[in-house]
Structure formats: structure tokens, C-alpha cells
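New to this. Help decode both lines:
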Amino acid sequence: MEKMSRVTTALGSSAISGRTMFCHLDAPANAISVCRDASQVVVAGRNIFKIYALEEDQFVEKLNLRVGRKPSLNFSCADVMWHQMEENLLATAATNGAVVTWNLGKPSRNKQDQLFTEHKRTVNKVCFHPTEVYMLLSGSQDGFMKCFDLRKKESVSTFSGQSESVRDVQFSMKDYFTFAASFENGNVQLWDIRRPDRYERMFTAHTGPVFCCDWHPDDRGWLATGGRDKMVKVWDMTTNRAKEIFCVQTIASVARVKWRPEKKFHLATCSMMVDHNIYVWDVRRPFIPFATFEEHKDVTTGIVWRHQHDPHFLLSGSKDSTLYQHMFKDATRPVDKANPEGLCFGLFGDLAFAAKESLISSDSNRKPYPGGDRRYPIFFFKKPDQTEQFAHVSSALSVFETDLDSNCMDWFVKTAQLYLLCGKPFTELCDHNAKVARELRRPQVSTTWTMLRIMFSDPANLTPGPNHPLSKLGTLPLMNSFNMKEMNSGMGAESRLERSKGENRQDNSHLEPGNSLISNNNEDNEETEGSEGQAEYMFGDAELDDDDLYSMEHDNQTEEQEYTLPQEAFQLRHEIMDNPSAPEHLQQDKVDSPHVSGNEAEVTCLTPIESFSLISISQPLFTPQLPASFFCPIVREMLSYYAEKGDVQMAVSVLIVLGERIRKEIDDLTQEHWYTSYIDLLQRFELWNVSNEVIKLSTCSAITCLNQTSTTLHINCSNCKRPMSNRGWICDRCHQCASVCAVCHHVVKGLFVWCQGCNHGGHLEHIRNWLKSSAHCPAGCGHLCEYT
């Protein structure tokens, strides 16, 4: 290895100058790094490896490190780092698993210095020690980290993270022997380079892979991490346990994080997908970026501050094959476009409204909200720090309270607890839910459930109760059991209708007042001589309502074929030959009926001129089994109506009960929105069981996975106290069964209950039965166990 000259150039009196500028690259960049004096930047990628000089107003290409007619995979770089103490020393992480160092002081065209091929998979990150010249650290996809001494031909230490992949490694800026490593399983480990056998500390930083980490340049114990969960977290490592002190929520996975020089609370981030912008955050105000750089047209792959003591210049490379220098004064400030007004409803209907004090200061009628109510936070503003550059906007908060009784949500809780969504036939579910809504004084919802039962039930399977109006009909063929033609032929000739009298009269059929299907709208009715009252036994004495028409049962098909009726209920008759007698059981009812008096018992006024059918008796009013698709448009509109009104409980409940009858009529995004809203309400009211039931009954993939994520169960062996693997019920270390029932001495593979005092337990039923007769532990340890 040739001798390399040490560069000690600092910012000093020659301050960095420049402007926002960019240059086009030959290929997309994967990583960039800047030399210590901030005069040159190296860009590395799969098909590019060049050094550019940073001049006043442009980038100038200085050196192309990809030499040779057929460049090897050693030139395909996943990461690059420029040593901050040796100006001629570079290190790259190759996609073929090689770690390559480059000496720019070599006189030959090929600047490759050393090649380490100990990693078996792609190397994701390389990092030089900040003060030790010849120490290089690498992290690979194979789960190992290796420490190299550049004066030797092989690694001097190997660190195993016991994980699938190492995504980033960073030496501490203040602690000489410490480095941090982030992993795809969400863990962050701290290692001492003197102890390669075991990490010093490990903690779970994110719910997904941790893609990057960065030590604070000034504060010794602060470590920033970014991951797939779209979070940037700042950890205090000076305590016994890693303590999260700041958390920033971004809009995409975090690929790079870099602390801003000379600014304690500022850091820059970029995303690895979707979002192309670079954000600078103030961790004390994590909800809105402090500054944004929006120049790139594709994903930003590398960011670095130009100088370690200059916070005003940021360099970035992207997949859009551009290299940018961003000047901080040209950045977009999202806070300048932020809306200082806010509006929010509380859980119990209270309304909070915040607005600029300058807008409402003239409103003398506004009463200040009393600060004594502890339900609301008290807002106050400290004297702004001089280093704080965020725009300060003071807003006045007004809270409008509502009467709790007027907006009570007890009906929601009771409905959620009492509704049945599965486990019974469809008709019983609808009837039960309708009864629940009726008892809670929600008649519209109750009627909706009843209509759903009518529309989607099979009419042949309906069995009305003894009090149902349909049961009064006896057998249905009574309605269709006579022939008007036969009735006309049997009438006597002496009973002729007087045409002259009938011309000035309206068509009138005297039925019983109790009939709800055909009503008599004429109060001044005159009797027509010679007509008998056959209308009384067309429907019998039973009373019908609208629901009964949909519930009629057409069992007697032979009678329907035998008796055929004309299209008109009453034909025009000029001559009645005979007076047929009514059936005996109906004659008796007609004579005894208190609603029929005088000649009304014998004569019914039928006008031949204006006679028409109020209801077609010869045809059924509906098809015995209408397809579900006939009602689906109406039900879809009904569900949208309830959802838009805010009653997502009804929309989701009907969606679950109807199931496949209606599910295909509503798009998946709408269903997911309804489910999410209803589950959120249930969890606000702490109805965890109902919420879990709704999640289980949902068919949306985005909903069914809600109770299968963010749940981690750590199992330790009851004998050796070591963590158990997920391969089985036998401990890998002591080869003993982990959970053995203290009563039956068999392995518990289902629900396990144990005493928190002595840690013995077993099957739930076995322990419960044991403690009914004995208070001592069944394992014989002498502990007095208590089952609650």
C-alpha cells in the first residue's frame, strides 16, 4: 500500500461558497460520499464510479474509476465512503460481496488497492473509523459484520448479529470502541470492537427492517434510526436501557438519515420508494418538515452534508441519474404554508376550534375557555430560542361543549354488545337485531332489519307465529278459490241491475272496515238493487298488511290451475240469472259480523260502467322467490345512506349478516373504509371483544390481518429460562418440554394458565378443577395458588 498524505484542511477562514446546482450522471447512483475538505464528491452505483469536483457554480468530472474494457463486479457498488482523515482513501461495498479499497494516489489508471472477499452475500454498508486510519467496518446481507485492518490481507474480527441481514453500520463519533448496527428484523445492536463474541446491547427499534442509523456528531449518546415503518426515532444510549426521546413520522420508508451539522435537533432523511423529496426535520416538531428539497424526479439514494461543520449545503444522488448540491436557503419551508386553523370533534361531541389570535382578537363576545377543566391541555408559549427558526404562530383555542345527555352514545355501546352477526339462521339474526333496535327506540333501524328479512328470506321457509296476521288466513287458496265465470253463470235472471241507476254512481265494493288492502273511499254510497254481496268472502274475515303480501305461501298449485280468474276482478254484467249462495262458514261470519247491517248483508253495489280491479286476484302479486340481485341496488343505497349519516355500525352489521348476498355489490375500498371506521369507534369505547369479532368476520384482507400484526409472544423455557425457538415445544438447550401441565403432566399446546407466584400451571380446565378442591399448587411446591 502506497503512502497516503494526510489532509488537515478545515473550514477555517475559507468558508464554503456555492449555489444550488446539479449535473447529469451516466447512470443511477446508489451512494455518494464527500471528502473532508468538501472539495470533491464520489458517486458510486451499479454502472458508475466517478469523482466530481465541487466548483463555485458547477460539478466538474475529475476521475472515472471504472477502468478496463470489461469492468468486473468489484466496480458495481452498493455503498461508498471517503475516509475523513486520508484524502486519497476510498472504500466501496460491492454487490458480489467484496469490500474494495481504492488509493487515489496511485500513478496507474486502476486505483484499486485491496480486495476482501470474505462476505458471502452483498455488502450493504462500509464505514471507516472516524479517528483510526486503517480500521474499516462492513455489514453484509449474510448477517455478519467484519472489521478490517488495511495493513493486513484479511479481517481481524467477525461479528455475528444472529439475524438475516445487516443494513447499516456506524462507528460512534465520541466512543472510540463502539459501533452500532441495524438489522432487517427491527433490532439495533451496539458492539465493542474488542469483544466480537457478543453484543453489548440490543433493543427493538422499529416494527420492520431498520435501514439506516447515524450517531449525533455532538451529543455522545444520541442515535437516530430509520426503518420501513416510516418512522425516524432518536434514542438516548447513555441510560441503562435505550430510551426513545424523539420520534418523527414520515410518509414513506426511511432509507437514509443524517444529522445536520451545527444544529443539535435537525436531521435529514430520504425515502427508498414512493417519495422523491429530501426532508430536514426538527425532532422537537416532528409533525411537519422544517425544510424540503424537491428537485429530484426519482428516488433519492444518497444524502450527505457537504462539510461536517457547515449546515448550509447538502449533496444528494438519485436514481434519476442526477447529482445535486442543495443550498439550504433555497429549500421549501412547509411551515410557511401550514394552516394555523384547526377544527376537531371530541368523542362526546365537544368541538375544539383553533385560529390565529389576530383573526379573533376583535371578537369581544368570545369567552376564554376556563383552564381549570383538566380534560383539555393548557397551551402556553415559551420565549422562542434564538436558534429556533420555525415560524411561530400563536393560535387561540376555543372549546364548545355539548350537553352530554343530548349526545349520549349509550345506544352505540348497547347495540354493539347485543347485536348478533353470526351463529344463527339469517331470519333469526334479522329478527333479533330488529328487536334490539326497537328496544333502544330506533324504529328506522328496526324496520330496516325487518325489510332485509323479508327481501332476502326464502318465502317457502317462512313460518309465521300464531300472532302473525298471516295465520288468520287459514289456507291461502281461500283468496283464489272461486271462478268469476262460474259465479256469473249461476246468477238468477230476476236480479238484474238497473243500468239507469248505475250510470250516476261510482264503483263501490262494501268490504269490512277491518280490511287494510281495499278501503272504501266513498262515504255516501247508494245500494244497487239486484246485486248480492260476494265481496265479503273474497278475502274472508282476516286482516292483511303490506308485509303479509310478501309472506304468502303458494302451496296449493292444483287449485291455482283449476280456478282461473279473468284479468278484471268484476266483469260487466247485464243480466244476473241466479243468486249463488256463499259458503256456509262465511255465511255465518257475515250474518254475525257487527260491521254489516241492513241490506249490506245481502247487496253489494257493483257499477257495471266504472267497475275495475283494485287488485288482481287471479295473479300472484310477486314471484315466489325473487333473486337477491333484485334487491341489491336498494340495499346498496341503504348502506351508503347509513354510512354517510355516520352510522357505520349499521352499515358494517348489515354487510356481515348479508354476507355474499351484498358483498360483491360494494367495492373493496368502501368496505375497508366502513370496517376501519367501525373498528376505530369500537376500540375508542374499549369494546375489544366486539372489535375482534368484527375483524374475524370481515372478508377484507386489509381488515382480517389487523389482529394478526403487532403481536409478539416471547416464550421462555420453564426449566432453563432461555428463549424458546418457534420450531416446537421442546427446548433446544435443555431438551425439556417447555410447558407441562402440573396436573396431567402432558404438554400444553393450547390455552395455558399459570400462577404468577410460583410459575406453575397447566391446562385451564385441569387447574380450575384442581383449585376447586385444593388451594395448594398441584406441582407440590407448597405455594397457595389462587384462581381468579
In short: The longest helix spans residues 628-645.
